[in-house]
Amino acid sequence: MKFKFSLVNLLFFVGSISVFAQSPNPITTALPFLQIAADARAGGLGDQGVATSTDVFSQQWNSSKYAFAERGIGVGVNITPFLTQLVDDIVLANLVGYKKLDDRSSISASFRYFSLGEIEFRDGPDSQAFVQKPNSLSFDVAYSLKLSDHFAMSVAGRYLRSDLRLQTLEDSDANAGNGFGVDISGFYQSDKIPFANFDGRWRAGFAITNIGPKISFSEGEESFIPTNLRIGGGFDFGIDSYNTIRTSIELSKLLVPTPPVPIDANGNGAIDPEENNVFEEFNDQSAIGGIFESFGDAPRGGEEELEEITYSVGVEYDYNNVFALRVGYFNENENKGARQFVSLGAGFKYTSIGLDVSYLFNTSSVPSPLEGTLRFGLTFSFGEDYSGY
Predict the structure, then answer these.
(1) Taken in order 13, 17, 23, 26, is the CA torsion positive or negative?
(2) Of 60, 186, 221, 388, which is most buried by a Cβ count within 10 Å?
């Protein structure tokens, strides 16, 4: 189905895919698709993955987890439809794979593609359509290494491209933006710890993703990419040799400056551009400088800084590494986007083939582009068995 361009549809999409436009002082960035959970397992756990157990789709969340992978090679593909109640051709696709080099190191790569489908522009009802296919994509590679038996770190490099700016019949000067980002991450996983009635295992992880320069779409216009800090932890309850319950929690914060709030400096009841050079200072900040500024630049101080931290909790029940049930909750402050939802998911595995699905229940007053959408992920794991290391 083609997406016919109209102001109503465009506003609906913009308001759904980024942040709640009416919320006070939200943080916006270029390439917001990088913040979307691109796999069904993470989607079923409340959009988290920095400290969950290793899986094929670890690349987006914490690539250092691949050093603990139990199979030599893994490949996965995931499809996430968007705005299914409006159109049927907006989709986020994710292709990922890893290879263990030995029991301590691995390499991995992923490709994410976000398509807005087809948008038609017309001068009039009988004029020839001017069709565009806006899209964004990323391609990254990573290397992970165990620094000890229980801790690994990873570094990843990512190429970014965004071609979402719509060229109209009158204005064809819009350009695609190109950039790059770097991820630095770490992951800790303990040995199994015997308790009275179960075996436990601790997990912890951190990741700073998309560290890189601003992206430019036209001369003199630059936007921050979504540099992000995630930290998390979890604990596994090994009830017996067949049944395991994994719990996890994750905190996340954009390392991007908070936009300044316009002020009436001279008290004349109007906001004059001359009074607000803070906007020039905001736009002139470098990407690296913005990372450090992001911890203390909120106009309302520490209270607003805390509002910029999202959190999620998740629980996964696993039966013999064959069948899994998942539930998660994600919360973002109403002043910073108001994404709030409960997610459910399930996983099925037969020999080397795995299937994951998840579903989102929106609990916010703000519509979610993923509400009513099933995400599907397919994985293949094969090669040498490293579960004994």
Answers:
(1) negative
(2) 60
Q: Domain containing 243 — which CATH number?
A: 2.40.160.40
* Local confidence pLDDT in tens for the 389 residues of the chain: 444 443 334 433 444 444 433 447 888 898 999 999 999 999 999 999 999 999 999 999 999 999 999 999 999 999 998 877 777 778 899 999 999 999 999 999 999 999 887 776 666 666 666 677 788 999 999 999 999 999 999 999 999 998 876 665 445 556 788 999 999 999 999 999 999 889 999 999 999 999 999 998 777 778 899 999 999 999 999 999 899 999 999 999 999 999 887 665 566 655 565 555 666 677 778 889 989 999 988 888 889 999 999 999 999 999 999 999 999 999 999 989 889 999 999 999 998 999 999 999 999 888 888 887 889 999 999 999 988 65
**Separation between Cα atoms, residue 257 and residue 295, nearest integer Å:** 8
Radius of gyration of the chain from Cα atoms? Answer: 22
The set of long-range contacts for 374-378, using a CB threshold of 8 Å and a minimum separation of 24, is 374/81, 375/39, 375/40, 375/43, 375/78, 375/79, 375/80, 375/81, 376/40, 376/78, 376/79, 377/39, 377/40, 377/41, 377/57, 377/76, 377/77, 377/78, 377/79, 378/76, 378/77, 378/78, 378/353, 378/354
How many separate domains does the chain show? 1
Q: Quote the domain boundaries for residue 287.
A: 3-385
Provide CB contacts within 8 A for 139, sequence distance 6+: 109, 110, 111, 112, 158, 159
Tell me the DSSP string of 146-206.
ESSSSEEEEEEEEEEEEE-PPPPSS------EEEEEEEEEEEEEPPPEE-SSSEEEEEEEE
Residue 169 backbone dihedrals phi, psi, to 5 degrees: -65, -30
C-alpha closest to that of 110 among 137, 89, 136:
137
C-beta separation of 130 from 150 below 8 A: no
Tokens of 209: 């993703």
Residues 130, 319: Cα–Cα separation, whole Å: 53
